[in-house]
Amino acid sequence: xxxxxxxxxxxxxxxxxxxxxxxxxxxxxxxxxxxxxxxxxxxxxxxxxxxxxxxxxxxxxxxxxxxxxxxxxxxxxxxxxxxxxxxxxxxxxxxxxxxxxxxxxxxxxxxxxxxxxxxxxxxxxxxxxxxxxxxxxxxxxxxxxxxxxxxxxxxxxxxxxxxxxxxxxxxxxxxxxxxxxxxxxxxxxxxxxxxxxxxxxxxxxxxxxxxxxxxxxxxxxxxxxxxxxxxxxxxxxxxxxxxxxxxxxxxxxxxxxxxxxxxxxxxxxxxxxxxxxxxxxxxxxxxxxxxxxxxxxxxxxxxxxxxxxxxxxxxxxxxxxxxxxxxxxxxxxxxxxxxxxxxxxxxxxxxxxxxxxxxxxxxxxxxxxxxxxxxxxxxxxxxxxxxxxxxxxxxxxxxxxxxxxxxxxxxxxxxxxxxxxx
Length: 422
Fold this sequence. Notes:
Subcellular location: Cell envelope
Keywords: Cytochrome c-type biogenesis, Disulfide bond, Redox-active center
Largest sheet: 6 strands, mixed
InterPro entries: Redoxin, Thioredoxin-like_sf, Thioredoxin_domain, Thioredoxin_ResA/DsbE_sf
Number of helices: 12
Organism: Sphingobacterium kitahiroshimense
Order of helices and strands: HEEHEHHEHEEHHEEEHEHEHEEHEEHE
Low-confidence stretches: 1-26
Protein name: TlpA disulfide reductase family protein
Protein backbone atom coordinates (compact mmCIF):
# COMPACT_ATOMS: atom_id res chain seq x y z
CA UNK A 1 0.00 0.00 0.00
CA UNK A 2 1.73 3.15 -1.21
CA UNK A 3 0.09 5.65 1.13
CA UNK A 4 0.11 3.41 4.16
CA UNK A 5 0.95 6.12 6.68
CA UNK A 6 -1.84 8.34 5.42
CA UNK A 7 -4.20 5.38 5.70
CA UNK A 8 -3.18 4.80 9.32
CA UNK A 9 -3.69 8.48 10.15
CA UNK A 10 -7.15 8.35 8.59
CA UNK A 11 -7.96 5.15 10.47
CA UNK A 12 -6.93 6.64 13.82
CA UNK A 13 -8.88 9.84 13.17
CA UNK A 14 -11.96 7.81 12.24
CA UNK A 15 -11.81 5.86 15.50
CA UNK A 16 -11.32 9.01 17.54
CA UNK A 17 -14.18 10.87 15.91
CA UNK A 18 -16.50 7.88 16.35
CA UNK A 19 -15.86 8.11 20.09
CA UNK A 20 -16.05 11.86 20.43
CA UNK A 21 -19.22 13.73 19.54
CA UNK A 22 -18.91 17.34 18.45
CA UNK A 23 -22.09 19.15 19.37
CA UNK A 24 -21.56 22.90 19.02
CA UNK A 25 -19.53 25.01 16.64
CA UNK A 26 -17.60 27.88 18.16
CA UNK A 27 -18.90 30.48 15.74
CA UNK A 28 -22.52 29.57 16.63
CA UNK A 29 -22.15 29.71 20.42
CA UNK A 30 -23.50 32.58 22.51
CA UNK A 31 -21.21 32.87 25.55
CA UNK A 32 -23.25 35.63 27.21
CA UNK A 33 -25.17 33.11 29.35
CA UNK A 34 -22.25 30.78 30.06
CA UNK A 35 -21.47 29.98 33.69
CA UNK A 36 -18.00 29.70 35.17
CA UNK A 37 -16.63 27.87 38.19
CA UNK A 38 -18.12 29.26 41.41
CA UNK A 39 -21.12 30.87 39.70
CA UNK A 40 -24.60 30.42 41.11
CA UNK A 41 -26.73 27.87 39.31
CA UNK A 42 -30.35 28.78 38.61
CA UNK A 43 -32.39 25.69 37.64
CA UNK A 44 -34.69 25.79 34.63
CA UNK A 45 -38.39 26.24 35.29
CA UNK A 46 -39.17 23.12 33.33
CA UNK A 47 -37.39 20.40 31.35
CA UNK A 48 -38.42 17.60 29.03
CA UNK A 49 -37.41 14.37 30.72
CA UNK A 50 -37.53 10.67 29.88
CA UNK A 51 -36.25 7.44 31.44
CA UNK A 52 -35.25 7.19 35.09
CA UNK A 53 -37.72 6.71 37.94
CA UNK A 54 -38.94 10.31 38.25
CA UNK A 55 -41.32 12.16 35.92
CA UNK A 56 -39.82 15.53 36.91
CA UNK A 57 -36.73 16.93 38.62
CA UNK A 58 -37.03 18.55 42.04
CA UNK A 59 -33.97 20.81 41.92
CA UNK A 60 -34.57 22.08 45.47
CA UNK A 61 -34.25 18.57 46.90
CA UNK A 62 -30.99 18.08 45.02
CA UNK A 63 -29.16 21.08 46.53
CA UNK A 64 -27.55 18.89 49.20
CA UNK A 65 -26.43 16.28 46.68
CA UNK A 66 -23.56 16.43 44.21
CA UNK A 67 -25.38 16.65 40.88
CA UNK A 68 -23.64 15.58 37.69
CA UNK A 69 -24.89 17.00 34.41
CA UNK A 70 -23.55 14.49 31.90
CA UNK A 71 -23.82 15.98 28.39
CA UNK A 72 -24.42 13.16 25.95
CA UNK A 73 -25.11 12.30 22.32
CA UNK A 74 -26.04 8.97 20.77
CA UNK A 75 -23.00 9.14 18.45
CA UNK A 76 -20.56 9.48 21.35
CA UNK A 77 -19.02 6.09 22.13
CA UNK A 78 -17.31 7.25 25.32
CA UNK A 79 -20.60 8.70 26.61
CA UNK A 80 -22.22 5.30 26.23
CA UNK A 81 -19.28 3.46 27.76
CA UNK A 82 -19.27 5.48 31.00
CA UNK A 83 -23.04 5.36 31.72
CA UNK A 84 -22.95 2.07 33.70
CA UNK A 85 -20.08 3.48 35.81
CA UNK A 86 -22.06 6.65 36.55
CA UNK A 87 -25.13 4.64 37.49
CA UNK A 88 -23.08 2.43 39.81
CA UNK A 89 -21.71 5.53 41.56
CA UNK A 90 -25.21 6.89 42.06
CA UNK A 91 -26.52 3.56 43.36
CA UNK A 92 -23.60 3.29 45.79
CA UNK A 93 -24.12 6.83 47.14
CA UNK A 94 -27.82 7.63 46.61
CA UNK A 95 -27.87 10.18 49.44
CA UNK A 96 -24.85 12.05 48.09
CA UNK A 97 -24.82 11.79 44.27
CA UNK A 98 -27.30 12.27 41.43
CA UNK A 99 -26.68 11.76 37.70
CA UNK A 100 -28.71 13.59 35.05
CA UNK A 101 -28.04 12.98 31.36
CA UNK A 102 -28.44 16.06 29.15
CA UNK A 103 -28.81 16.09 25.37
CA UNK A 104 -30.08 18.39 22.63
CA UNK A 105 -31.43 15.40 20.71
CA UNK A 106 -35.14 14.71 20.31
CA UNK A 107 -37.22 12.08 22.09
CA UNK A 108 -37.86 9.86 19.06
CA UNK A 109 -34.14 9.57 18.27
CA UNK A 110 -33.39 8.70 21.89
CA UNK A 111 -36.17 6.13 22.19
CA UNK A 112 -34.85 4.31 19.12
CA UNK A 113 -31.30 4.47 20.45
CA UNK A 114 -32.07 3.12 23.93
CA UNK A 115 -34.32 0.41 22.46
CA UNK A 116 -31.49 -0.91 20.27
CA UNK A 117 -28.35 -0.41 22.35
CA UNK A 118 -27.32 -3.84 23.65
CA UNK A 119 -24.56 -2.51 25.92
CA UNK A 120 -26.86 -0.25 27.94
CA UNK A 121 -29.53 -2.96 28.09
CA UNK A 122 -27.00 -5.50 29.34
CA UNK A 123 -25.96 -3.12 32.14
CA UNK A 124 -29.60 -2.14 32.86
CA UNK A 125 -28.83 1.56 32.57
CA UNK A 126 -31.86 3.69 33.41
CA UNK A 127 -30.69 7.21 34.19
CA UNK A 128 -32.94 10.27 33.74
CA UNK A 129 -32.41 12.05 30.42
CA UNK A 130 -33.20 15.70 29.74
CA UNK A 131 -33.84 15.94 26.00
CA UNK A 132 -34.46 18.75 23.50
CA UNK A 133 -32.24 20.84 25.75
CA UNK A 134 -31.09 24.36 25.00
CA UNK A 135 -31.01 25.79 28.54
CA UNK A 136 -28.06 23.77 29.85
CA UNK A 137 -26.21 24.01 26.54
CA UNK A 138 -26.34 27.81 26.83
CA UNK A 139 -25.08 27.69 30.43
CA UNK A 140 -22.31 25.20 29.65
CA UNK A 141 -21.29 25.55 25.98
CA UNK A 142 -18.97 22.88 24.63
CA UNK A 143 -17.99 21.35 21.32
CA UNK A 144 -17.13 17.81 22.40
CA UNK A 145 -18.79 15.19 24.52
CA UNK A 146 -18.76 13.72 27.08
CA UNK A 147 -18.82 17.05 28.92
CA UNK A 148 -19.28 16.94 32.68
CA UNK A 149 -20.59 19.60 35.07
CA UNK A 150 -20.72 19.13 38.85
CA UNK A 151 -23.23 21.20 40.85
CA UNK A 152 -23.35 21.35 44.65
CA UNK A 153 -25.18 23.62 47.05
CA UNK A 154 -26.38 25.87 44.25
CA UNK A 155 -23.00 26.52 42.65
CA UNK A 156 -20.97 25.31 39.68
CA UNK A 157 -18.17 23.27 41.27
CA UNK A 158 -16.49 21.71 38.22
CA UNK A 159 -16.60 21.76 34.42
CA UNK A 160 -14.46 18.81 33.46
CA UNK A 161 -14.04 15.64 31.42
CA UNK A 162 -15.35 12.16 32.17
CA UNK A 163 -11.96 10.98 33.47
CA UNK A 164 -12.38 13.16 36.58
CA UNK A 165 -15.75 11.72 37.60
CA UNK A 166 -15.03 9.02 40.13
CA UNK A 167 -15.94 8.04 43.66
CA UNK A 168 -13.04 9.91 45.24
CA UNK A 169 -13.85 13.23 43.57
CA UNK A 170 -17.58 12.95 44.36
CA UNK A 171 -16.97 12.19 48.05
CA UNK A 172 -14.33 14.91 48.33
CA UNK A 173 -16.72 17.52 46.95
CA UNK A 174 -19.55 16.33 49.20
CA UNK A 175 -17.36 16.39 52.31
CA UNK A 176 -15.31 19.55 51.69
CA UNK A 177 -17.76 21.58 49.60
CA UNK A 178 -14.99 22.36 47.13
CA UNK A 179 -12.95 20.52 44.54
CA UNK A 180 -10.20 21.36 42.07
CA UNK A 181 -10.59 19.27 38.91
CA UNK A 182 -9.01 19.86 35.48
CA UNK A 183 -11.06 22.41 33.58
CA UNK A 184 -12.56 21.28 30.27
CA UNK A 185 -12.78 24.40 28.12
CA UNK A 186 -13.38 23.39 24.52
CA UNK A 187 -13.02 26.98 23.36
CA UNK A 188 -9.77 27.70 25.13
CA UNK A 189 -6.70 28.07 22.95
CA UNK A 190 -3.07 27.60 23.76
CA UNK A 191 -0.39 30.23 23.62
CA UNK A 192 2.28 29.54 26.18
CA UNK A 193 4.26 32.62 25.21
CA UNK A 194 1.31 34.85 26.07
CA UNK A 195 1.23 33.25 29.51
CA UNK A 196 4.78 34.47 29.95
CA UNK A 197 3.55 37.99 29.14
CA UNK A 198 5.25 38.09 25.77
CA UNK A 199 3.70 40.76 23.56
CA UNK A 200 3.46 40.54 19.80
CA UNK A 201 6.18 43.14 19.42
CA UNK A 202 8.46 41.36 21.87
CA UNK A 203 8.05 37.87 20.43
CA UNK A 204 10.80 37.16 17.92
CA UNK A 205 11.07 33.37 17.95
CA UNK A 206 11.70 30.62 20.44
CA UNK A 207 10.73 27.33 22.08
CA UNK A 208 8.89 26.59 25.28
CA UNK A 209 8.07 23.35 27.09
CA UNK A 210 5.53 23.21 29.91
CA UNK A 211 3.38 20.72 31.77
CA UNK A 212 -0.39 20.38 31.83
CA UNK A 213 -2.25 23.56 30.86
CA UNK A 214 -5.58 23.82 32.64
CA UNK A 215 -8.48 24.85 30.44
CA UNK A 216 -6.68 24.25 27.15
CA UNK A 217 -8.14 21.41 25.06
CA UNK A 218 -5.94 18.52 24.00
CA UNK A 219 -4.23 19.18 20.68
CA UNK A 220 -1.91 16.93 18.73
CA UNK A 221 0.81 18.44 16.58
CA UNK A 222 -0.24 21.44 14.54
CA UNK A 223 1.95 23.46 12.18
CA UNK A 224 0.52 26.84 11.14
CA UNK A 225 1.22 30.54 10.73
CA UNK A 226 0.35 32.47 13.88
CA UNK A 227 -2.18 35.17 12.98
CA UNK A 228 -0.95 37.63 15.61
CA UNK A 229 2.80 37.50 15.22
CA UNK A 230 3.07 36.30 11.63
CA UNK A 231 5.58 33.71 12.82
CA UNK A 232 5.31 30.01 12.03
CA UNK A 233 3.97 28.13 15.02
CA UNK A 234 4.38 24.47 15.95
CA UNK A 235 2.20 23.49 18.91
CA UNK A 236 1.11 20.53 20.95
CA UNK A 237 -1.01 20.72 24.13
CA UNK A 238 -1.89 18.39 27.01
CA UNK A 239 -0.68 15.09 25.61
CA UNK A 240 1.71 12.44 26.87
CA UNK A 241 5.38 12.52 25.93
CA UNK A 242 4.79 9.19 24.20
CA UNK A 243 1.94 10.67 22.15
CA UNK A 244 4.12 13.60 21.14
CA UNK A 245 7.04 11.40 20.09
CA UNK A 246 4.83 8.93 18.22
CA UNK A 247 3.28 11.70 16.15
CA UNK A 248 6.62 13.40 15.56
CA UNK A 249 8.30 10.26 14.29
CA UNK A 250 5.36 9.72 11.95
CA UNK A 251 5.69 13.27 10.59
CA UNK A 252 9.48 13.08 10.38
CA UNK A 253 9.67 9.76 8.58
CA UNK A 254 8.72 10.28 4.92
CA UNK A 255 9.41 6.66 4.00
CA UNK A 256 6.63 4.11 3.87
CA UNK A 257 6.57 1.93 6.97
CA UNK A 258 4.11 -0.41 8.62
CA UNK A 259 4.36 0.75 12.23
CA UNK A 260 1.00 0.51 13.97
CA UNK A 261 0.76 2.58 17.18
CA UNK A 262 0.24 -0.24 19.66
CA UNK A 263 2.14 -0.48 22.91
CA UNK A 264 3.64 -3.95 22.30
CA UNK A 265 5.65 -2.39 19.46
CA UNK A 266 7.34 0.16 21.72
CA UNK A 267 10.72 -0.54 23.32
CA UNK A 268 11.25 1.53 26.47
CA UNK A 269 14.88 2.24 27.30
CA UNK A 270 13.98 4.56 30.18
CA UNK A 271 14.14 4.54 33.95
CA UNK A 272 10.41 5.03 34.51
CA UNK A 273 8.04 4.53 31.57
CA UNK A 274 4.95 5.50 33.61
CA UNK A 275 5.71 9.20 33.20
CA UNK A 276 5.60 8.81 29.43
CA UNK A 277 2.24 7.05 29.12
CA UNK A 278 -0.87 6.43 31.24
CA UNK A 279 -0.35 2.68 31.68
CA UNK A 280 -2.64 2.46 34.74
CA UNK A 281 -5.52 4.30 33.04
CA UNK A 282 -5.58 7.08 35.64
CA UNK A 283 -6.93 9.52 33.04
CA UNK A 284 -7.15 13.12 34.29
CA UNK A 285 -5.08 12.45 37.42
CA UNK A 286 -2.22 11.21 35.28
CA UNK A 287 -2.60 14.02 32.73
CA UNK A 288 -2.41 16.80 35.32
CA UNK A 289 0.78 15.29 36.71
CA UNK A 290 2.53 14.16 33.52
CA UNK A 291 1.06 15.79 30.40
CA UNK A 292 3.23 18.17 28.41
CA UNK A 293 2.62 21.21 26.23
CA UNK A 294 4.97 22.67 23.67
CA UNK A 295 5.25 25.70 21.41
CA UNK A 296 7.85 26.73 18.91
CA UNK A 297 7.82 29.96 16.89
CA UNK A 298 10.03 30.23 13.81
CA UNK A 299 10.62 33.01 11.33
CA UNK A 300 11.18 30.46 8.57
CA UNK A 301 8.50 28.12 7.23
CA UNK A 302 9.56 24.51 6.61
CA UNK A 303 7.97 21.33 5.34
CA UNK A 304 6.19 19.41 8.15
CA UNK A 305 8.64 16.50 7.89
CA UNK A 306 11.64 18.82 8.34
CA UNK A 307 9.97 20.74 11.15
CA UNK A 308 9.18 17.47 12.94
CA UNK A 309 12.85 16.44 12.81
CA UNK A 310 13.84 19.78 14.34
CA UNK A 311 11.28 19.38 17.12
CA UNK A 312 12.55 15.87 17.80
CA UNK A 313 15.91 17.48 18.46
CA UNK A 314 14.19 19.84 20.91
CA UNK A 315 12.85 16.82 22.80
CA UNK A 316 16.25 15.15 22.80
CA UNK A 317 17.91 18.26 24.18
CA UNK A 318 15.23 19.06 26.76
CA UNK A 319 14.27 15.62 28.05
CA UNK A 320 17.46 13.76 27.18
CA UNK A 321 15.42 11.55 24.85
CA UNK A 322 15.47 10.16 21.39
CA UNK A 323 12.91 8.17 19.46
CA UNK A 324 13.78 6.03 16.49
CA UNK A 325 12.76 2.94 14.55
CA UNK A 326 14.26 -0.41 15.45
CA UNK A 327 13.60 -4.10 14.85
CA UNK A 328 12.61 -6.72 17.40
CA UNK A 329 11.91 -10.44 17.26
CA UNK A 330 8.48 -10.91 18.86
CA UNK A 331 5.38 -13.05 18.95
CA UNK A 332 3.24 -12.32 15.88
CA UNK A 333 0.16 -13.47 14.05
CA UNK A 334 1.62 -14.74 10.78
CA UNK A 335 -0.56 -14.93 7.65
CA UNK A 336 0.60 -17.53 5.12
CA UNK A 337 -0.74 -19.48 2.15
CA UNK A 338 -2.61 -22.74 2.70
CA UNK A 339 -4.89 -25.04 0.63
CA UNK A 340 -8.37 -23.59 0.12
CA UNK A 341 -11.02 -25.13 2.39
CA UNK A 342 -14.61 -23.97 1.81
CA UNK A 343 -16.19 -22.40 4.86
CA UNK A 344 -18.56 -24.69 6.75
CA UNK A 345 -20.21 -23.31 9.82
CA UNK A 346 -22.75 -20.89 11.19
CA UNK A 347 -23.99 -18.03 9.06
CA UNK A 348 -21.54 -15.13 9.28
CA UNK A 349 -22.76 -12.04 11.11
CA UNK A 350 -21.41 -8.49 11.31
CA UNK A 351 -19.25 -9.11 8.23
CA UNK A 352 -16.54 -6.74 7.03
CA UNK A 353 -15.01 -6.88 3.53
CA UNK A 354 -11.29 -6.14 3.25
CA UNK A 355 -9.90 -5.20 -0.17
CA UNK A 356 -6.50 -6.79 0.37
CA UNK A 357 -4.55 -8.85 2.86
CA UNK A 358 -2.77 -5.62 3.81
CA UNK A 359 -6.08 -3.99 4.75
CA UNK A 360 -7.05 -7.06 6.77
CA UNK A 361 -3.66 -6.99 8.55
CA UNK A 362 -3.99 -3.30 9.42
CA UNK A 363 -7.47 -3.58 10.91
CA UNK A 364 -6.60 -6.78 12.77
CA UNK A 365 -3.49 -5.10 14.20
CA UNK A 366 -5.51 -2.10 15.29
CA UNK A 367 -8.14 -4.27 17.03
CA UNK A 368 -5.42 -5.58 19.43
CA UNK A 369 -7.09 -9.01 19.76
CA UNK A 370 -3.97 -10.80 18.52
CA UNK A 371 -0.22 -10.08 18.45
CA UNK A 372 1.11 -7.83 15.64
CA UNK A 373 0.33 -9.21 12.18
CA UNK A 374 2.93 -10.34 9.65
CA UNK A 375 1.47 -10.65 6.14
CA UNK A 376 3.35 -13.20 4.05
CA UNK A 377 0.48 -13.50 1.56
CA UNK A 378 0.58 -9.88 0.33
CA UNK A 379 -2.33 -10.06 -2.07
CA UNK A 380 -3.52 -6.53 -2.85
CA UNK A 381 -6.40 -7.64 -5.08
CA UNK A 382 -8.05 -10.26 -2.87
CA UNK A 383 -11.46 -9.37 -1.40
CA UNK A 384 -11.78 -11.00 2.02
CA UNK A 385 -15.16 -11.12 3.76
CA UNK A 386 -14.84 -11.89 7.46
CA UNK A 387 -17.66 -12.21 9.99
CA UNK A 388 -17.59 -11.87 13.75
CA UNK A 389 -15.20 -14.23 15.54
CA UNK A 390 -13.90 -14.70 19.07
CA UNK A 391 -10.99 -17.14 18.68
CA UNK A 392 -8.14 -17.74 16.27
CA UNK A 393 -9.75 -21.06 15.33
CA UNK A 394 -12.97 -19.27 14.33
CA UNK A 395 -11.00 -16.74 12.31
CA UNK A 396 -9.04 -19.45 10.51
CA UNK A 397 -12.20 -21.26 9.43
CA UNK A 398 -13.07 -18.11 7.49
CA UNK A 399 -9.57 -17.28 6.24
CA UNK A 400 -8.95 -20.77 4.86
CA UNK A 401 -11.80 -20.24 2.40
CA UNK A 402 -9.38 -17.75 0.75
CA UNK A 403 -6.30 -19.99 1.03
CA UNK A 404 -4.93 -18.14 4.06
CA UNK A 405 -4.00 -19.42 7.48
CA UNK A 406 -3.12 -17.38 10.58
CA UNK A 407 -0.71 -18.85 13.12
CA UNK A 408 1.07 -17.52 16.19
CA UNK A 409 4.83 -17.52 15.71
CA UNK A 410 8.01 -15.52 16.06
CA UNK A 411 8.92 -12.84 13.51
CA UNK A 412 10.88 -9.60 13.29
CA UNK A 413 8.81 -6.42 13.37
CA UNK A 414 9.58 -2.73 13.30
CA UNK A 415 9.30 -1.06 16.69
CA UNK A 416 9.50 2.45 18.07
CA UNK A 417 12.40 2.80 20.51
CA UNK A 418 12.16 5.53 23.15
CA UNK A 419 15.50 5.95 24.90
CA UNK A 420 16.86 8.19 27.63
CA UNK A 421 20.38 9.13 26.63
CA UNK A 422 21.55 10.74 29.84
